[in-house]
Design a protein that fits this description.
Chain lengths: ~190, ~400
């Protein structure tokens, strides 16, 4: 569940969560109905804008968690404080319902943090755009090599790169760079 | 800059505050140049919620903050999410809160009071009647679970035999949203700092049924909170900050004219952005409490400097911690004394007081509740003038008894 009165930013975060395979069950602009929405949707995570006055209302729900069958708690223990720090610095605060594994929460927050940072800093976004352009060039070159030597279609070449990236937990650009390097060796 | 003080290690500071009348010492210290006098370049940053203020303080986005006193304690104990050690060596004042109910509930309470003063007893009768009729429990709001607003409201209710957890529904609403929520009928009453009580009366939707002073005379309210690590790293900055704010507090209590000038400062767009008369009401100690224009004179409504108001009493800390245990926020076996000692730092305050030539109390704790009138602590030249500290139910809180019983 996502609470943010900034529509544009909310859409960015929602897309990021969606991309990470996490379903956004509800999007709210204000806390009008926050309590009801949380009760109705029982979300695993409520991500709320740091600057929202409604954070206090959410924290109250956490405090009342003992009497609530779906307690809302702040996930961070002291060992997670670095994650919280990052989240807060990026304008995100994350709350989870009991029983959610910390690993998953971590990835949720990480993705959201990345999106918030992207939103917050135009400079960074610009730099990222430049990098992605450079990455695209790498990927295109790698695709070309695969198409030429492996007799694949463009789409097959791309999927091969993507599968390798996912299997090895690397970015497609990294894999593309590897393909190019290898091709250099066999020249 | 004052020559007797070491140069602040960190001359540029950012302090957070919530739009409330009791942020006055910070606003005055900035606008009247007290910060500047102590070599500090301070910017004040208005925050939308207590949780935001706390988190920004925790990660160092703010150097210090106007913070709910119990919140500073709760943070150190880890009641509040990520444990973060905060300290306070300065109370920003005493009092400043009131309990307001919706106009329609006030009329029901008046009827129940049958000509007698409208008190929590009248609310108890209304609640009993509603229960007999099968109606839903009334919803009341406070500003944060670990706030003196919560503890004062619960104390007021409990003293009249109302169980705040069974007979009522208590929720949290941020101060600037209180009046709107009351208007919408989401809540029937609340306990909040000024000017959010006076505003409800002015807007014709609520009546002030009790001042915080009625529940506990000269109760502690906000503190200046900083991180424990920050305080250790920047002792001269901390000292300069305390001195500047005490000077501002002294100015605030010097004359009614100064209070009015403070109201004008607070009313500005950058701070509360509200009509001056709404803010001046509680600062002048003359509150309009109902729609008929009934006025109450409460000279101790806000105390910023008198009665050693800036001293961080460890007995205040213990009372608040005891309330946390009483209402189930802390386990009964929590080490309250250790928490009070770690967070409340009268030793640092005394160093600042010495620089300022202000006589601080010689002890860190006092029994609360035993004084109906102003009194003196200590003898002769070392005597410190203190205010009344009576509780609504006449109870006395002896900090030496902590752990013995969790009744009050």
């Amino acid at each position: 569940m996502l609470v943010d009165d900034d529509l544009e930013r909310r859409a960015l975060v929602a897309a990021a969560l969606d991309g990470a395979g996490l379903a956004v069950v509800a999007e709210l602009g204000t806390a009008d109905g926050l309590l009801r929405a949380v009760a109705a949707c029982t979300p695993d995570v409520v991500i709320i804008d740091l600057e929202s006055p409604d954070r206090d209302i959410l924290e109250n729900m956490r405090c009342l968690s003992r009497d609530n069958p779906h307690p809302v708690v702040m996930f961070a223990t002291s060992s997670d404080s670095e994650a919280i720090r990052e989240a807060i610095e990026a304008g995100v605060s994350a709350y989870v319902v009991d029983g959610l594994s910390p690993g998953r929460v971590h990835s949720v927050v990480e993705v959201a943090v990345a999106r918030f940072r992207q939103y917050a800093s135009l400079q960074r976004e610009l730099a990222e755009a430049r990098t992605s352009l450079a990455q695209r060039k790498l990927i295109d070159r790698a695709k070309g090599i695969l198409m030429e030597r492996g007799r694949r279609t463009e789409s097959e070449a791309y999927h091969a790169l993507r599968k390798l990236a996912m299997d090895q937990n690397k970015t497609i650009a990294d894999i593309a760079q590897g393909v190019i390097d290898t091709a250099e060796l066999f020249k | 800059m004052s020559p007797s003080l070491p140069t602040p290690e960190l001359p540029r500071l950012r302090l957070g505050y919530i739009p409330l009348t009791d942020a006055a010492p910070l606003v005055v210290a900035l606008e009247n140049g007290h910060f500047e006098h102590y070599g500090l370049d301070v910017s004040l940053s208005r925050q939308p919620s207590w949780a935001t203020l706390r988190d920004k303080l925790g990660i160092g986005h703010l150097d210090g903050a106007h913070l709910l006193a119990p919140m500073a304690l709760a943070c150190s104990l880890g009641v509040e999410g990520v444990p973060q050690r905060l300290v306070t060596a300065l109370s920003l004042g005493l009092g400043g809160n009131a309990i307001t109910v919706a106009d329609n509930l006030y009329r029901d309470m008046q009827a129940a009071a049958d000509g007698q003063p409208v008190t929590a007893q009248a609310l108890a009768s209304v609640i009993a009647r509603r229960r007999a009729a099968g109606a839903d429990p009334l919803t009341f709001a406070t500003v944060y679970p670990t706030s003196n607003h919560t503890y004062l409201l619960r104390y007021w209710l409990a003293a009249a035999g109302i169980d705040p957890d069974r007979d009522l529904r208590l929720i949290v609403v941020p101060p600037p949203q209180m009046v709107q929520r009351l208007k919408q009928g989401d809540i029937y009453g609340y306990c909040v700092g000024e000017p959010w009580n006076t505003l409800a009366v002015r807007d014709g939707i609520g009546c002030i049924v009790a001042a915080g002073h009625d529940v506990w005379n000269n109760a502690p309210e906000k503190v200046l909170a900083v991180g424990a690590a920050w305080a250790q790293r920047y002792p001269a900055t901390h000292m300069a900050l305390i001195c500047a704010i005490v000077e501002a507090a002294r100015w605030l209590d010097e004359s009614p004219e100064n209070r009015l000038r403070a109201a004008h400062l607070l009313a500005g767009e950058t701070y509360l952005n509200l009509p001056v008369e709404v803010i001046a009401a509680s600062l002048s100690g003359r509150l309009t409490v109902d729609q008929r224009g009934t006025q109450r004179e409460l000279t101790d409504f806000h105390v910023f400097y008198r009665y050693a108001a800036n001293f961080p009493w460890r007995s205040h800390a213990l009372w608040m911690l005891r309330q946390m245990v009483r209402w189930g926020q802390l386990p009964a076996d929590a080490d309250l004394l250790a928490a009070a000692h770690a967070t409340y730092r009268p030793d640092i305050y005394r160093l600042a007081a010495a620089r300022l030539g202000v006589a601080p109390p010689a002890v860190d704790m006092k029994a609360e509740g035993g004084h109906r009138c102003a009194w003196k602590l200590g003898e002769g030249n070392a005597a410190v003038a203190l205010g009344p500290d009576r509780f609504i139910d006449g109870a006395v809180f002896d900090p030496a008894d902590v752990g013995a019983k969790i009744a009050h």
